[in-house]
Amino acid sequence: MDIAMDQVVEFAQMWGLKAVAALTIFIVGRIAAKILRNTLRKALHRINVDEMLVSFASNIAYVLLLIVVIIAALNQLGVQTTSFIAILGAAGLAVGLALQGSLANFAAGVMIIIFRPFHVGDFIDAGGSTGTVEEIEIFTTKMKTPDNKLIIIPNSQITSGSITNFSAKDTRRIDLVIGVSYSDDLGKVKSVLESILNDDQRILKDPAPTIGVLALADSSINFAVRPWVKSADYWTTLFDLNKIIKERFDQEGISIPFPQQDVHLHQIKHPVAA
User: Fold this and answer.
1) Assigned architecture for domain 13-98
2) Structurally, what CATH architecture does the domain formed by 117-165 represent?
3) Chain segment 130-187, per-residue pLDDT in tens
4) Three-class DSSP labels, the chain
5) Topology of domain 171-252, per CATH?
6) Which residues of the chain have pLDDT under 70?
7) Could you give the dihedral angle defined by the CA atoms of residues 71, 76, 80 and 86, in that order, rounded to the nearest 10 degrees?
8) What is residue 97's predicted lDDT score, i.e. its pLDDT?
9) Domain boundary assignment for the chain
10) What is the pLDDT of residue 98?
């Protein structure tokens, strides 16, 4: 009887110590996981990462750390965790293969949010579409086209190609090609163009606009007209300049030629039959 009681006491002491050690590992590990989660959250906030990504990344990190803590606690109890880890690895691989495209979009979304090639409200050309960015999500980016269509583009499609951000800079250059007739006075044409640009308050003085002969084309002499404006004034200034240049040229007697061809007819005289 005494021997059996000693075995029970010894068994209780052994497993009791293991249970206490496992419980301690779990409690301390859980506290450490929360601290690391909060530290990660603060670090992401410090670099101005999107709140949605902060929440998602910190929660994923906490869950992964908690799994490690649970495995360590079970191992302390004597539970064989090798097969459990193998099952988790196989499950993770299967999920990764099934969600390969989604994971690529997620990774691309993280890169967009961290490196900020564009922001909400920017007018961009990316992923084969052009529009104003309305929302940057984990898997997709929403854009609104100038004609008010909503485009949802996978993030991986955006990061896999070039991104043109028209709103990234405060100023933009308008590139106009204005053709005039070969019979027009080039000095007068340049003077009229300079007057038009000087009269428009939206045209920036620095950098100064460029006006020069660009090419001697087939039907016209082409002038390059390149003024600088604020990015917000780009389209309205472009439209107004086209209209004003046409009207001023009409007033000044400067012609804007259109492509034309001269056709020469040759008459062939046939010999008169005898």
Assistant:
1) Orthogonal Bundle (1.10)
2) Roll (2.30)
3) 999 998 877 889 999 999 999 999 999 999 889 999 999 999 999 999 999 999 999 9
4) CHHHHHHHHHHHHHHHHHHHHHHHHHHHHHHHHHHHHHHHHHHHHHCCCCHHHHHHHHHHHHHHHHHHHHHHHHHHCCCCCHHHHHHHHHHHHHHHHHCHHHHHHHHHHHHHHHHCCCCCCCEEEECCEEEEEEEECCCEEEEECCCCCEEEEEHHHHHCCCCEECCCCCEEECCEEEEECCCCCHHHHHHHHHHHHHHCCCCCCCCCCEEEEEEECCCCEEEEEECEEEHHHHHHHHHHHHHHHHHHHHHHCCCCCCCCCCCCCCCCCCCCCC
5) Alpha-Beta Plaits (3.30.70)
6) 1-17, 49-53, 55-56, 78-101, 259-262, 269-274
7) 20
8) 52
9) 13-98, 117-165, 171-252
10) 52
Backbone phi and psi for residue 154, each to the nearest 5 degrees, phi listed first: -60, 140
> In the prediction, which pLDDT does 51 show?
65
pLDDT of residue 12: 54
Beta-bridge partners for 176: 225
Residue 88's pLDDT is 63
